[in-house]
Amino acid sequence: MTSFSLLAPAIARDVLDHALALGADFAELFVERKRRSQLSLLSSQIEAISGGLDFGIGVRLCYGHKVLYGYTNLADRNELLRIVSLLAAKDRRDPVVTASAFDFTRLSDRNPVALPLSADKLLEQKIAYLHAMDAAARAESTKVSQFSASALGWEQEVEIFNSEGLQVSDRRHYNRITAQTIALAGGEQSVGYEAPGAMMGWEHAALIDPRELALSSTRQALVKLGAAPCPSGTLPVILESGFGGVIFHEACGHLLETTSVAKKASVFHDKMGQLIASPVVNAVDEGLQGNAWGSINVDDEGMATQHTQLIKNGVLSGFLVDRMGALKTGYARTGSGRRESYRFAPASRMRNTYIEAGHHSLDEMLASVEYGIYAKRMGGGSVQPGTGEFNFNVQEAYLIEGGKVTKPLKSATLIGTGPQVLQEISMVGKDLAISAGMCGSVSGSIPASVGQPQLKVNSILVGGNA
């Protein structure tokens, strides 16, 4: 990986030494430069072209379990020393540790990029791509009343220094393309949406046919027009691979972060080594997949990413642990300290989180259901922190009758708790897929992948309007 410098090491050394001289147990500088570009299309016209550059430095001091955090946009020694003095004003004491000399860590880059934003001269190509999507969506049906699309990219350079001698830098590239279709017929309106993303440059677009992406969004919208009302009650549900993993992410994954575990705000905080799911469930969180949306070379505390087994054969096997989480719980760090930008202190967060592949086919799962729901595409929802109680909309749903998919449904909602759903999974499919999403928590909004193969949930409360 190519090295670069955003802050002179001599300045970083002086600032960290000053923090320790004021009695901090640990001090850290997170230096960030971010470029951003976005093109948006609406009503068959390019609506907006925007971009920008942001730079800043986050300063973190730790006094025991107490975290003090501030930031600035200036890479100036006196400004950084001033921030440290302000942060430590109420907690300063005699020095308790001494700083270590910097040892620069050179990373291997698992996420190669061909067309980075900093060298991007492809504006006309991006505009043509969005117009190709628009034309395909509108040609599919006269019921398409509106189509919107965007191409979003950002390039983030980070450099991290800490009082234990860490010095590491990383460059990250993200690209995401969105397509949203609104269909209208007889006064009824429905929406379809797709938003693939990758840790890549604009070469990501070469992997995605713009016509197929637009048609996927459009067909979602069209299939719901005139769809039958969804039945309600406790029913078996088959969740499709990919974005169906948003339920595990939201209703279970957050409960396995030491952000909640350390406060005993998670129902799983004391369940390590216990059976918390059906024995057919195996789940992981990792940052190692090359160019995956949630992958990282190094976390935002400077630790190399890794593969973390969360659940093995139904047994709770691991938590997601950042530096402060390790200090509070005693569990080893997992390279999961992440943050949106220099404006946020890091916290334990997910990367690529998914249930691993099993052995069943979708046809086998369908054949095992006499009457139930096939949730082909999940939408948004809400989750209660701590308990994992959730309420998720199904973006695209179908009725299962006699082991066969019969008709499309509208207004389907899945209601339950993460711990409950884990126990009700009886069949796990062969075809694992992951999807891109943005995850919000105490350290801001970050790219994270969700995923799973097809799953059969024996029993879950379905809300409908039939």
In short:
The protein is an alpha+beta fold.
Structure commentary:
The chain is an alpha+beta fold. Among the domains are: 117-153 and 173-225, Double Stranded RNA Binding Domain (2-Layer Sandwich), CATH 3.30.160; 233-463, no CATH class. Helices cover 19% and strands 41% of the residues. It is built from 9 helices and 24 strands. The chain has helices spanning 9-21, 77-88, 123-140, 210-224, 246-251, 258-261, 323-329, 362-367, 418-424, and strands at residues 26-42, 45-63, 66-72, 103-105, 144-162, 166-185, 188-194, 197-198, 228-229, 233-239, 283-286, 307-312, 315-316, 337-338, 347-348, 352-355, 371-384, 389-401, 404-410, 413-417, 425-428, 433-441, 444-452, 455-463. Strands 1, 2, 3, 4, 5, 6, 7 and 8 form an 8-stranded mixed sheet that branches. Strand 18 and strand 19 (404-410) form a beta hairpin. Helix 3 (123-140) packs parallel to helix 4. The longest helix is centred in the N-terminal third of the chain and has 18 residues, at 123-140. The radius of gyration is 24 Å and the shape is globular. InterPro entries: Metalloprtase-TldD/E_C, Metalloprtase-TldD/E_cen_dom, Metalloprtase-TldD/E_N, Peptidase_U62_metallo, TldD/PmbA_N, TldD/PmbA_sf. Belongs to the peptidase U62 family. Keywords: Hydrolase, Metalloprotease, Protease.
